[in-house]
Hints:
Layout: H1 3-6, H2 11-19, H3 24-36, E1 43-46, E2 48-49, E3 52-54, H4 58-73, E4 78-83, H5 93-102, H6 108-114, H7 116-123, H8 131-138, H9 147-155, E5 173-175, E6 178-180, H10 182-190, E7 200-206, H11 212-230, E8 233-239, E9 247-248, E10 266-267, H12 275-279, E11 285-289, H13 301-330, H14 338-350, H15 365-376, E12 380-387, E13 395-400, E14 406-411, H16 421-428, E15 432-433, E16 437-441, E17 462-468, E18 471-477, E19 490-495
Parallel strand pairs: 2-3, 3-19, 4-7, 4-11, 7-8, 12-19
Antiparallel strand pairs: 1-13, 5-6, 9-10, 11-16, 12-15, 12-16, 13-14, 17-18
Amino acid sequence: MDSKQKNMFSQKDKVQIQQRGSRLEVVEGQIENFRKGFPFLKIDDAATTGNGIIQLDEKGIAESGERFEQGMAAGIEPLKFVPASGAASRMFKALFEALEDCKKTDNPDETLIKNASARQFLVNKEKFAFFSDLEKVAGKNDEKKNCRSWIEYLLNEKGLNYGSLPKGLLKFHKYAEGERTPFEEHLVEGAHYAKDNQNVVRLHFTVSPEHLQAFQEILERVKETYEKELNVTFDVSFSQQKPSTDTIAVDLNNEPFREPDGSLLFRPGGHGALIENLNDLDADIIFIKNIDNVVPDHLKEPTIVYKKALAGVLLKFQEIIFRYQKRLNERDAVALESAFLAEAANFLENTLNVKPPENQYYTEKEELYYYLKEKYNRPLRVCGMVKNEGEAGGGPFFSQNPDGTTSLQIVESSQIDPESVQQQNILQNATHFNPVDLVCGVKNYKGEKYNLTEFTDPATGFISKKSKDGKELKAQELPGLWNGAMSNWNTLFVEVPVETFNPVKTVNDLLREQHL
Length: 516
């Protein structure tokens, strides 16, 4: 680190950094990341069915589900983790743009009808679960309403203010007894696979501070009804992204971006910051799923079946891993025997797909022992993978790690060198993508929880250009929660059907048959 960087922060800056719960060396490291940039990941191959992706047949699905049920009956404690703090503004991007276009014309209704997204919304508005609420705030006199006002009442503060709310608080689905938000759908879904042997369903949602009360109010209103209907008890907790995980912003010269009062500007570090929230939780099995990937009750069955199957796969392989962990950690008489080391190395390489550095063979028993001990003492995740049908999302690849090993990773296309024909060819060979469908084992064979922050790859962050108050800046995102933040976990990929993936990226996605 050069002397210029060491002197870029005043005493006042250092106090601000400390008050945020961060450390000066962390912020200095972020500045260095801006200056050097993040390296591209090097991928060796796409993970495909039978080559890194496990495909379960009907018998395998049933056996895995049964294994999970037996584990729950024996006292394994599950928890469902749902990142739910993101604003829904992207859902309505096209509608916001259509409203902006209206300002440039004398005939806003005609402009809206020419916009495909706005037209689709307006023609089908009565089909949305939130329409009755929209109609109430907009007034029931259709003759006085134009196309523009319907969209304004949906998005703006004078109406439902959906453009500023998180997805979890929007009404997605209609039922005979009323409408449900994604938050409620996750409660109901969780009751079918995340309940312990006392019928307690534990769920944790990460929310933004300004919306916490609204989530709590919904929970208070529906909790008793769902508990009676589903014969469970809900234990729901919330957390916020920690200010200490925010990253510093810089100007285009990589100098700290400053507010008008001279203070440093920090920005949220993206969903990778939630590894801290996940690390604060204590459970034997943690399911992770995005807030918008929900369906009405009559379509939940495939999701429930495969969630249990993924958890059963985790328990099956965790049992084997624990056996190796115990022997390696306690270094019993067998731990240094050639036969055991060969068996453990074979399982690591051919089942967990962790391969040693090229041309490096651990011929020394002691060296192999320590290598295996390190690789087995890691959290385990089982990730659902959907056949790629054009949806955006990270893909499953065999990727090279900083220590020279190769392992299974979820890689975003932006992490792959766009100038490398060879790397882009591998990217094009991908057959599956990650729908954010994870089951995590975060404890070792003794039941001790890992410190998840020790298993990240800091070199997998992301830099983007933004603006504030008309000034351009560069922002930095931490390694993604299921990407670099879990880079040093042991990983298994399992194929899951597309029926389990029903995201709502735009408001008009709610017009798909899966959501009606």
